[in-house]
Amino acid sequence: MGEGSNALEWSEAFDVLPDDESDPEPIAIRKFEADNELLTAAHRAQNKYTQGNVVEGTIGSADVWNNELDRIALFHKNCGTSVEEMEAASVAQIASQYKVPFLGIRVLSNNITNGGAYDAGTGEACQHYVLDVVVEYMKAKQAALK
């Protein structure tokens, strides 16, 4: 922290969007909102998650690994990110194109911002929470059919 961020040292990131940004449609997909029904299901399932805290926030996702603390802090300040990673945007883009409901769920253990040690159990805990969210989502869908 405090060493700055030098974008000239990064390898060029892969951008799946067109170079011509005059059409607002592709530009709009740089941000993906959570599906409201999935988000509601996540809220209903959060009391079952006991391995940590469930926090609603913004996932900063890109096809580049961010490991500069100052850059991560800049995204947090300017974009309101709660966490950053490399997968959710790609999944959200495909879900959006095929009109599949999407919600990004991440578990945090070790990362550059907290200096935490790796704990393999965090991934398993996230899987259990995701299953609980899906169960709540399907219960709501089933109830809506009645």
TrEMBL record:
One of its GO terms (cellular component) is cytosol. GO terms for molecular function: adenosylhomocysteine nucleosidase activity; methylthioadenosine nucleosidase activity. Pfam families: PNP_UDP_1. One of its GO terms (biological process) is nucleoside metabolic process. It comes from the Bacteria. Residues 21-115 form the Nucleoside phosphorylase domain. This is 5'-methylthioadenosine/S-adenosylhomocysteine nucleosidase. It comes from Acinetobacter bereziniae (Acinetobacter genomosp. 10).
